[in-house]
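Consider the following assembly input.
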Amino acid sequence: MAKATIKEVAAEAEVSTATVSRVLNDSGYVSDEIRERVLEAVAKLNYQPSAIARSLKQDKTYMIGVIVPDISNPYFMGISRGIEDAVGAEGFQLMFCSSDENPEKEGRLLQLLREKRVDAVVLATAGGNDETVKALSESGLPIVLVDRKLGTETGGAGVLDLVAEDNEEGAYRLTGRLLEEGHVRIGVVNGPARVSTGRERFEGVLRAMRERGLREQPLVYNGAFSTEDGVRAVRKFLQADPKPTAIVSLNNRMSLGVLLEIVRSGLRIPEDMAVASFGEVEAISLLRQPGFYYIDQHPYDMGTRAGEILLRRIRKERAEEGPAIEIFRNEVNRIG
Amino acid sequence: MAKATIKEVAAEAEVSTATVSRVLNDSGYVSDEIRERVLEAVAKLNYQPSAIARSLKQDKTYMIGVIVPDISNPYFMGISRGIEDAVGAEGFQLMFCSSDENPEKEGRLLQLLREKRVDAVVLATAGGNDETVKALSESGLPIVLVDRKLGTETGGAGVLDLVAEDNEEGAYRLTGRLLEEGHVRIGVVNGPARVSTGRERFEGVLRAMRERGLREQPLVYNGAFSTEDGVRAVRKFLQADPKPTAIVSLNNRMSLGVLLEIVRSGLRIPEDMAVASFGEVEAISLLRQPGFYYIDQHPYDMGTRAGEILLRRIRKERAEEGPAIEIFRNEVNRIG
């Protein structure tokens, strides 16, 4: 099936190519009779206007780039689904990319999305690309940060739109629950220091310990937010002397690894090792007597907020406004 | 930062725009001295050639569309990672899309990928789009099917490239292990009938039962390959009279749901309910005494094979050849 060209459509409808273009782009006056003839020719020849050629004219690609650090983490998929539901109805399509927590790969993806002329970018950054991100934003590309701030931003007052969680406060409360139960020797499983969520959550852990007068520093394992990192952290903690009696894991993927390795080691949760997780773990119910604290998260709602913000940016409804900052506050829950 | 144009680059380098274009596209002769001048001007002005304009000239977008039914299923993410590793080194970028097991959404995504002029498509179909897929393929767009065949294809001899698993044989062996242990009342958790993997796996279950002379039909629950479907299937089976003593779950996501709901119901695995799964379940080690049969899968290897096939198709190395068919055969494993 050879592709029909706009010339063939024009010939079939006995009009000019400019008229065909006017009908298809819904621009300029065309009589109903001519419009009908063109649309019939389009249907007859199964003409597919090239989206690329069209986007050059309209200066819009209707594509939104979404870069997340781990495309298989249900948390980031929840965010993506929220974005998709917010922007899909307006005809925008998401292009998902995974940086795999690799700043260098993220840099290449940002460059690629710019080249593809996406209309906007949603970024959960792996860190290390502050200059690139700011340059893209200053060149006029709308960028909404989700979950993670740039490394150079502190507090909630950055220069870019942001939808994130109150990480410090959440981790503070989560750790507080363990300390109330009498734990003093804590193992902390964290991500790389270049990622803001990890830094902020760790601050919350330290504040909780400080306020209760604990002088002892926690044991810390820094991984890359993977299940395997949780496994490795537990192995490290079990070799410590004295061992921690409780583990705070600062991301859902690592928490699954923590739980898997504790169970494999024959330890009971929470009698032998208490566990608190920033983020839910779907599989937790496989444990007969879980005894498990966790911070619930609302990735879908965060995604819809991010989608709403970038729609307004694309439409230039708030070109002159400062950054939109949305911080979600989460509760501590207990299973078992 | 206003975007530099090719005219400004040409003026800066004191050459024609055609010469700038020849340097950037590496086409036609340009002296070393001129080339250097152009590249210096490009660097100085931070000129970004538009990938869209370039792709119109080269007739290549260097984008490969990947449509999977569930982007958060680790199985499909394994396939995607394999594809990415196979094609990334050649400069191709993946555009992930999730059909959410929705044939109508899949149809829209196929149309969108065509409009975006991707160089090839990898499709794990949700079913129901056979005519669209064939029309796209006949129009010259390379399409590699992974995991799932078109509804109209039988056996391994389709018209499109295919990388899949020997589903019938795998499910036959898996079910055989349960029957050898004396189970006769089996509950089968399956996906929608429009998906080839579910149909083929169910055939394998029936063959295993038939060959052992079992007259009784299995209890069947048809869901949509989600964790929640596994939960619902167990609830249904536990209300049956008599209840099944074993469950065969024909996809990894549903298997997690099956395990969660059995544990929540206070039943022991395998004493009260034996479980066999087509596909691994990462969280299985959370069970203290699992007793669990599963078919291992090799999504990453399937992805790299699919990537290799489509690279050859894009390069037209095998334009004249018939479809490439790769079937992976899997083993039954036991935990506990």
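DSSP finds twelve helices and twelve strands in chain B. Ask yourself how this observation constrains the way the partners meet.
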